[in-house]
Amino acid sequence: MFENLPFLRKKQEEDTPAFDPDDTSYLEPTAFQKRMPWIAVIAAYLLLIGSIGGVAAYLITSEDQILAEIREDRPKVSLEADKITVRNLNETAGAGDHGGSAAPPGHQEGDGHQQISANDQASGQTATDAAAPPGPDGLGELLQPHPDPGLIEESAVGPLPIIGADGRMPWRVYSRPYGVLETRPRIAIVLTDLGINSRRTEQAIQLPGPVTLAFAPYSRNVEDWIQKARDAGHEVLLTLPMEPRDFPRSDPGPFALMNSLDAEQNIRRLEWIMSRATGYVGLVGYQGSGFVANPRSVKPLMADLRSRGLLYLDGKQTAASIALRSADAVGVPAAQADLILDIELGRAAVLKQLKLAESLARANGSVIAIGRPYPVTLDRIRIWMRSLTESGFAVTPLSGIIAERTAS
């Protein structure tokens, strides 16, 4: 009610400043608001410097602990020489001396390449019939146990294969036994890229033992898969990722051998791949159409494989590959796949390639067929192998065919 008093209205008007519609000074930022962007930039910079300093301080003060953890995580092998033995055929079959220290008949001491004896061949037995379980065909126990202490060297990345002081080579020692007197045309089946898909890898291991299996070094459990495959009688390889012609559209992975790297860098990557497991006879190229056509890249690779006693299989990635020529020049046992089983997917297409393998084996004496663990490929191989003996062909481990080809 006091608002209506004249003297109060007059005083209120005097205390209220007059509004100027043209005055925009209230829209101008304050001094603090003007400095706000710079304050934010400085704060972010100090936070970044503090974070980097904190990480650096941790790395410096914890260097020993970090290095110990890295060494603990690298692949390891247990080299107990007194526990590594090779059982003979009689023991495997449940007869004879059970000492478990004799080598199989035909096993050449100092060489390691296990071969089925002439007596087995004369009685009509093949490598598939010569022994009892374990393994789908009974030859799991005839593979040399791994790792062999004399064929391993420790490195910063893990165990690496070497030629033994007695001249034994991993590609011979870890090979699967085969019939040296076999007169039938020979077919080597090699399945690559195993270890990534567990179900398909299990199915591949269940195939008859003469099928050669190649495992991806990127597989988390590659060492366990190789042990399981060898227990089932399979000879094994590691796949070697290399630069494809269409890189980077096709990516072979973080440890692939690349043309853009020098020889020393590629050898370091090769050593990482080889250190993932033991018990393999060699390497098979993965992608690599660009790498295997480059002499500057291929020659150091082959020289290193030769010094380690490993074989090499060219996966037929490109007609321009010089891998075999480079391998021959330095004495690496090597071969190129003669055909790809699943270049086209489909039951009829895979079966057609298997029949082509038979024709090539009949004409040339032997053939190497390579494929991937597609369901249709695994299914066709399984069915095809059931009637193979009656067809007059023998499935042979890869090392057997490479040994014959390099010896001729």
CATH fold-type name: TIM Barrel
The coarse silhouette is elongated
Helix content: 25-40%
Number of helices: 15
Q: What's the CATH superfamily, by name?
A: Glycoside hydrolase/deacetylase
Number of domains: 1
Our measurement of the CA-to-CA distance between the termini, rounded to an integer number of angstroms, reads: 123 Å
Structural class: alpha/beta
CATH architectural group:
Alpha-Beta Barrel
Rg estimate, integer Å: 34 Å
Q: In CATH, what is the class?
A: Alpha Beta
Question: What is the average of the pLDDT values?
Answer: 78
SS elements, strand count: 13
| Unreliable spans | 78-138
Largest sheet: 9 strands, parallel
How much of the sequence lies in strands comes to 5-15%
Output the helix-strand order. Answer: HHHHEHEEHEEHEHEHEHEHEEHEHHEH
Question: How would you portray this structure in words?
Answer:
There is one protein chain. The protein has 15 helices and 13 strands. It is of the alpha/beta class and 408 residues long. It has a single domain, classed as Glycoside hydrolase/deacetylase (TIM Barrel), CATH 3.20.20. Strands 5, 6, 7, 8, 9, 10, 11, 12 and 13 form a 9-stranded parallel beta sheet that branches. The chain has a two-stranded parallel sheet with strand order 1-4. Strands 2-3 form a two-stranded antiparallel sheet. Helix 9 packs across helix 10 (295-308). The relative contact order is 0.11. Residues 78-138 have low confidence and may be disordered.
Q: Which secondary structure elements does this structure contain, and how are they paired or packed?
A:
Layout: H1 6-15, H2 31-61, H3 63-73, H4 89-92, E1 115-116, H5 118-122, E2 152-154, E3 159-161, H6 170-173, E4 178-179, E5 186-194, H7 198-205, E6 212-215, H8 222-231, E7 236-242, H9 263-274, E8 282-287, H10 295-308, E9 311-314, H11 323-330, E10 334-336, E11 339-340, H12 347-364, E12 366-371, H13 375-386, H14 388-391, E13 394-395, H15 398-407
Parallel strand pairs: 1-4, 5-6, 5-12, 5-13, 6-7, 7-8, 8-9, 9-10, 11-12
Antiparallel strand pairs: 2-3
Helix pairs in contact: 9-10, 10-11, 12-13
Pfam families: Polysacc_deac_2
InterPro entries: Divergent_DAC, Glyco_hydro/deAcase_b/a-brl
Protein name: Divergent polysaccharide deacetylase family protein
